[in-house]
């Protein structure tokens, strides 16, 4: 049996090309590596061809593309044979919609608010303008609605197997409301001139049978469809008669007929650009094809979690990672329900491992949720990076960035500008829903009715612009003291920028956000509206921050890309070793079982590319000089058209960092490398939303970037630049590799569960997705691992570029973690003092439980020991000792451990030890 709480997890990205059977095949390798739990990307049925699985279309079945139930059973058997557990990535917040594969969504389109699934989606039915009936906007058209209609791209079709009508726009199915079937049949029979035929008469009789409003209704429709498909000859008549709805520019009558039919549906078709301003269903961020689910609805929760409950009950699921917890209306309620479901499935005493995808901003603490062990580890990835960078180098890079960008090296102005841009473009519709709701609340009582809709919108906009984190966690019971202070502080900052007459508008907004409007003795306001507003704002500020910070500002602020990671602070000044120790001691007390990640499918670059770029902080002078020279060498390759410069100066600076981070370790870059950099640059430019964007691509600028990259990476055109780049890349690669070994050692030994992203046991120089989802050669890794039973660390250090050094060190660390499982999972964290000339270049601590212990020592800032990346560091060059008073280990004598001795194999060490006396740590409650 695998341990209830993972010792180490390994993330696999499942696709149609790498499904359950392929995952089962690598299980023996993962076992040999030291992994205890396979951590899989979403396994429920997703959109066909999905490369990530987050577009789930049916929570009730395992993905057929991944292998279905049979394939999952084989994976479960393989995991059981090797005592590995399974953790799955689960998506409670949203589902894939549009196309023709989500039965719930199709039912909602067909029946509107009468659908039993309508309550599962967060749709504002009354928001569509100029319609007599409510509906949902479908922004799926590649052109204007009129153009699509006149080009005949929208077709009315009949399905003879179902007896149903649907409009189709390419691969998108748009079910026709059955109440319109009678009208359609009459038009079709007339168009086919079949009124006197037997089949025609039966069709007309069927159409005439259901009279009155909204008929056939939901109860009658199955019988109607069944009878329709049973009428002999009906399909032929319908096929001919559908010409009455065959739109084209030269067929105005038919075009108008189809238009009138579509206007009487439960949906409204529109150009995809309308989504940003007019969409009326909650989305995942700004992705139109992912619609938010209302899992706060008990029926929706039960239906979407039925398969999860069954897998837990069957013993085939030991843990779950909850995607985008901040998208939920009430995460606390959700986690309570999930814990209850797990306990019902497996009993109350057996632990179950639950972590949440939660991005914490600087100095933000994770709220406690029922059954949750912690996050997926973004914050700890950034803590590790910040303690490895050189703060003095960051100061120098501040000045470099100031010169490159002509802006202050402060992040806040970038984020505020990005928020304003996102509000004006990507999330305008969601913001409009909130402002309308706020205005309705204000209008509900005479004391607040004079707050105009426009003033309320401006006040709410200022609040959103100044809100410093992803969200608050109010429930229907109201705000906690922490959330109340957060709201009040944000209101104060917003009020400071308000230049119109206040007259209580911010007090009203504050009381709406905290739900204080509903307190006894206050003027009465609509309780459902106030609660809906306050809780819905929480669901908005998360996507708002994500799109503004991660997906905009991170692609504008390029001072040091190693710090531009999910949950990170690109303007960080680094982390001192004492501050690092304090953070780890707090984690050991509060969240000892959360994940520690250094790479995920969401990170902006591979863990070793990030470690390389971090090393630029150790050689800032050389880096700045190199960039100055490269800009001169590559100036002829810039695209210059009037005021257009492609790439911009700041983007060019970003490109050079990216090239150094991703530069191949062995051999010159090939054509594939050039294409990868071009694809990354296009995504980065559009995400940055400066010269180009996804909404409004600037073709000339994008072509200029593509051409620039092609030219500077062409040896025939840029030989001098490439020689200089390669020289610095080789040195930075060595510094980066040493950083990576420290990063890896910290991940495996700090409080928390180390998570390994697929393939990263070799050097990981990938870029942002989809680059980091490329296939992994597990055969090569398995073969290499088999050859490393007795590693020759000296030899592996000499051949470090081939990746076997990292693989061997990963297995060594995981073996130690398995051998000292309680020490690393439940032990306390004790900083160890380092003394000597190079004390600042060493991090040392002990993990301890009872008398069992592990002493961990890692190096950092390796430039002085490597001639700035020119040679592997000699252990004798480290002049420092670690105070190990109170610990004893084989081969160690006295209370001072020389770093040169600790770094015998590598500039990182984990030493099994015994404590002189036992410390009884506070007992940690482990529950399901």
Keywords:
single chain; 928 residues; alpha/beta; eight-stranded parallel β-sheet; four-stranded antiparallel β-sheet; 33 helices; 44% helix; disordered C terminus
Helix-strand layout with pairing:
Blueprint: E1 9-12, H1 20-33, E2 37-40, E3 44-46, E4 56-62, H2 68-81, E5 85-90, E6 94-96, H3 103-111, E7 136-141, H4 145-150, E8 154-159, E9 164-169, E10 172-175, H5 181-191, H6 198-209, H7 221-230, H8 234-241, H9 252-263, E11 267-271, H10 275-278, E12 283-284, E13 287-292, H11 298-304, H12 306-313, E14 319-322, H13 331-346, E15 353-356, E16 374-375, H14 378-388, H15 391-405, H16 412-424, H17 428-442, H18 453-466, H19 481-496, H20 505-514, H21 527-550, H22 577-590, E17 595-597, H23 607-614, H24 620-634, E18 639-641, E19 644-646, H25 649-662, H26 671-688, H27 699-712, H28 715-749, E20 753-757, H29 778-786, H30 793-798, H31 804-819, H32 821-826, E21 828-831, E22 834-835, E23 842-859, E24 881-883, E25 887-888, E26 896-898, H33 899-902, E27 908-919
Parallel strand pairs: 1-2, 1-20, 2-5, 5-14, 7-11, 14-15, 15-16, 17-20
Antiparallel strand pairs: 3-4, 6-13, 8-9, 9-10, 12-13, 18-19, 21-23, 22-24, 23-27, 24-26, 25-27
């Amino acid at each position: 049996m695998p341990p209830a709480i993972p010792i180490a997890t390994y993330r696999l990205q499942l696709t149609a090309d790498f499904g359950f059977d392929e995952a089962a095949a690598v299980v023996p390798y993962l076992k040999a590596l030291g992994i205890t739990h396979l951590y899989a990307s979403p396994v429920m049925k997703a959109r066909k061809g999905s490369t990530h699985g987050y577009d789930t279309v049916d929570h009730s079945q395992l993905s057929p593309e991944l292998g279905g139930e049979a394939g999952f059973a084989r994976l479960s058997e393989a995991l059981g044979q090797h005592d590995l557990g399974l953790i799955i990535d689960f998506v409670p917040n949203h589902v894939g919609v549009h196309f023709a594969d989500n039965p719930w969504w199709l039912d909602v389109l067909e029946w509107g608010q009468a659908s039993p699934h309508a309550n599962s989606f967060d749709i504002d039915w009354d928001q569509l303008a100029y319609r007599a009936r409510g509906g949902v906007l479908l922004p799926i058209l590649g052109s204007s609605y009129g153009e699509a209609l006149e080009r005949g791209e929208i077709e009315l079709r009949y399905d003879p197997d179902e007896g149903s009508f649907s409009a189709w726009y390419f691969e998108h199915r748009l079910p026709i409301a059955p109440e319109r079937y009678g009208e359609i049949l009459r038009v079709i029979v007339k168009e086919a001139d079949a009124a006197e035929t037997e089949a025609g008469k039966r069709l007309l009789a069927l159409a005439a049978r259901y009279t009155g409003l909204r008929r056939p209704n939901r109860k009658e429709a199955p019988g109607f469809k069944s009878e329709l498909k049973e009428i002999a000859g009906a399909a032929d008549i319908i096929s001919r008669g559908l010409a009455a709805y065959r739109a084209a520019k030269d067929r105005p009558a038919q075009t108008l007929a189809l238009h009138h039919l579509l206007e009487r549906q439960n949906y409204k078709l529109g150009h995809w650009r309308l989504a940003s301003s007019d969409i009326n269903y909650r989305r995942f961020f700004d992705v139109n094809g992912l619609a938010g689910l209302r899992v706060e609805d008990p029926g929706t929760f039960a239906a979407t979690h039925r398969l999860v409950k069954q897998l837990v009950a069957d013993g085939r699921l030991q843990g779950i990672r909850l995607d985008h917890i901040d998208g939920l209306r009430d995460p606390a309620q959700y986690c309570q329900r999930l814990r209850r479901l797990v306990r019902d499935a497996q009993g109350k005493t057996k632990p179950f491992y639950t972590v949440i995808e939660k991005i914490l901003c600087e100095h933000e603490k994770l709220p406690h949720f029922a059954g949750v062990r912690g996050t997926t580890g973004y914050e700890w990835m950034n803590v590790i990076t910040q303690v490895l960078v050189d703060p003095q180098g960051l100061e120098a890079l501040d000045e470099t960035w100031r010169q490159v960008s002509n802006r202050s090296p402060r992040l806040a102005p970038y984020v505020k500008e990005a928020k304003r841009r996102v509000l004006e473009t990507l999330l305008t519709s969601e913001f409009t829903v909130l402002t309308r709701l706020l205005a309705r609340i204000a209008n509900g009582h005479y004391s607040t009715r004079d707050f105009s809709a426009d003033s309320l919108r401006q006040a709410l906009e200022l609040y959103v612009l100044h809100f410093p984190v992803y969200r608050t966690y109010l429930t229907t019971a109201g705000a906690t003291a922490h959330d109340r202070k957060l709201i009040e502080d944000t209101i104060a900052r917003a009020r400071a920028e308000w230049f119109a007459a206040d007259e209580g508008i911010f007090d009203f907004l504050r009381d709406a956000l905290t739900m204080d409007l509903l307190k006894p003795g206050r003027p009465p306001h609509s309780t459902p509206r106030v609660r809906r507003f306050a809780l819905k704002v929480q669901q908005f500020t998360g996507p708002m921050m994500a799109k503004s910070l991660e997906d905009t500002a991170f692609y504008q602020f390029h001072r040091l890309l190693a710090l531009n990671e999910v949950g990170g602070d690109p303007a960080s000044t680094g982390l001192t070793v004492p501050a690092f120790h304090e953070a780890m001691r707090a984690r050991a007390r509060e969240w000892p079982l959360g994940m520690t990640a250094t790479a995920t499918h969401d990170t902006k670059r591979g863990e070793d590319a990030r470690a390389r770029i971090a090393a630029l902080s150790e050689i800032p002078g050389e880096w700045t000089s190199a960039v100055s020279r490269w800009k001169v060498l590559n100036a002829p390759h810039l695209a210059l058209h009037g005021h257009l410069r492609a790439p911009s100066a700041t983007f060019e600076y970003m490109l050079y960092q990216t090239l150094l981070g991703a530069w191949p370790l062995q051999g010159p870059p090939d054509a594939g490398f050039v294409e990868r950099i071009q694809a990354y640059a296009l995504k980065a430019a559009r995400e940055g939303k400066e010269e180009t964007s996804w909404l409004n691509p600037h073709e000339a600028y994008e072509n200029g970037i593509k051409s620039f990259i092609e030219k500077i990476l062409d040896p025939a055109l840029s030989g001098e630049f490439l020689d200089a780049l390669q020289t610095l890349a080789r040195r930075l690669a060595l510094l980066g590799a040493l950083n990576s070994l420290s990063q890896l050692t910290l991940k495996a030994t700090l409080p928390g569960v180390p998570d390994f992203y697929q393939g990263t046991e070799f050097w990981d120089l990938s870029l942002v997705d989809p680059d980091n989802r490329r296939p992994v050669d597990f055969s090569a890794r398995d073969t290499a691992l088999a050859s490393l039973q007795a590693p020759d660390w000296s030899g592996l250090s000499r051949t470090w570029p081939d990746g076997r050094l990292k693989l061997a060190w990963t297995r060594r660390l995981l073996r130690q973690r398995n051998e000292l499982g309680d020490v690393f999972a439940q032990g306390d964290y004790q900083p160890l003092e380092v003394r000597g000339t190079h004390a600042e270049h060493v991090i040392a601590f002990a993990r301890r439980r009872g008398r069992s212990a592990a002493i961990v020592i890692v190096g950092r800032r390796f430039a002085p020991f490597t001639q700035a990346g020119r040679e592997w560091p000699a252990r004798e060059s480290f002049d420092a000792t670690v105070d190990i008073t109170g610990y004893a280990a084989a081969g160690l004598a006295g209370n001072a451990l020389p770093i040169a001795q600790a770094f015998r194999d590598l500039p990182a060490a984990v030493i099994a030890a015994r404590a002189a006396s036992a410390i009884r740590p506070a007992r940690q409650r482990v529950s399901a």
